[in-house]
What we know:
It is a single chain. The chain has five helices and eight strands; from the N terminus they run ββββαβαβαβαβα. It is of the alpha/beta class. The strands form two sheets. A five-stranded parallel beta sheet has the order 5-4-6-7-8. Strands 1-2-3 form a three-stranded antiparallel beta sheet, with no helix packed on it. The longest helix is centred in the last third of the chain and has 30 residues. The N terminus and C terminus are likely disordered.
Amino acid sequence: xxxxxxxxxxxxxxxxxxxxxxxxxxxxxxxxxxxxxxxxxxxxxxxxxxxxxxxxxxxxxxxxxxxxxxxxxxxxxxxxxxxxxxxxxxxxxxxxxxxxxxxxxxxxxxxxxxxxxxxxxxxxxxxxxxxxxxxxxxxxxxxxxxxxxxxxxxxxxxxxxxxxxxxxxxxxxxxxxxxxxx
Length: 182
């Protein structure tokens, strides 16, 4: 992606048809590229049998700064999950070889706790309620607004990270100071 510079020294970068301005010289905004501790890039697996949808979602997520892998069906996703660690799964439901809901059941049966977003035109909120034990983080009906989708992705990742931190904090509180036996 080519970076354009204007005479007022504001850099702009095209992203999904929008123009984003970089902070001006002397701005109070901290430059994230100079962070002493770089943030870990979150990894997302996108599963959809429709190539255009899979490409659209993957491109949007990669453009938002995520490390994205894609699978064309539930079986291919299951294989990827056996070899890689992901922070989030985005899956369709109706797919050949292994439907999204069956993939989620397999993931949960294996003890994997990653957050899962179901992006489907055929799965309803009632369906999610019927599968409450699978802990689906969000259901996004297709077609969806990409900006809303990205907000939901960020929220699911943040809530997951907060839950993990809370679990660690609770563990540390329970086990940090041994209590004397009386």
